[in-house]
Task: structure prediction
Amino acid sequence: MRPALVAMKHVKRLALSAHELQTLTWSARGMSSAEIASALGLTKRNVDFYLDQARAKLGAATRIQAVAMAVLEGLIKP
Amino acid sequence: MAQQKKRILCVEDDREVAALLAEDLSARGYAVSLVHDGRAALASLAKDAPDLIVCDVLLPSMSGFEVLQRVTEMPPRLANIPFIFLTALAERESEIKGRSLGADDYVAKPVDFEILASIIRTRLARAGRLPASMPAVDLTAREAEALTWSARGKTSAEIAQIVGLTKGTIDAHLDLARAKLGASTRTEAVVKAIKARLIKL
Result:
């Protein structure tokens, strides 16, 4: 791969889906996965999946870091 | 001093659901006004501004989205009233639409009243807190340090290694910080600390 493309890969980040943003928002407000699932009519597994996808897309090590990054970057407004 | 009841406007065309909403929210100490369509909602809203609006998405003649759209075009005093959608729509595209219009939250139907009540509490607390900003929270240096590392993606065990304490001590610091910030989870504590500029990443 050419260097320019390699560099691009680091800059360009996958956009977060509506579900991912929503679960991050609720997590930032202090809700557990089970509570978020109940509020959104999803399963807890779904919620954990969305939160983990969001974490991976943001390049965060933990869920807390993912939420912190999303807040600082203005992606969510809890 | 007797605290004035918070007023909630419920917009729901299904009479049965509307009655349930009114009953549950009244029992929780709110003053509830019920209307069954968007036009009545806008009229009621302009007449006496409620503290919060709970609105069904699927309404006759005017959809919940249109109601929200019209509300956001009103003067700031009304446009900023917290807005919560109730939706039976499995279709998640509606969420994106509602979000882009500025809805604060979605609650899926059938409504879990515990969840709805907790969202309403959060929303009302936030709305009331806006002008005054957060009360001063005094974190110790250790608590702030532990929260900062947590926000940077470190686990308690990793933080313990970094600052040279035990994991138990770190957990204690994080838990105290969480309690001081009035947060229910560590995630919420980190968010509150960031917003209050108590920690920097």
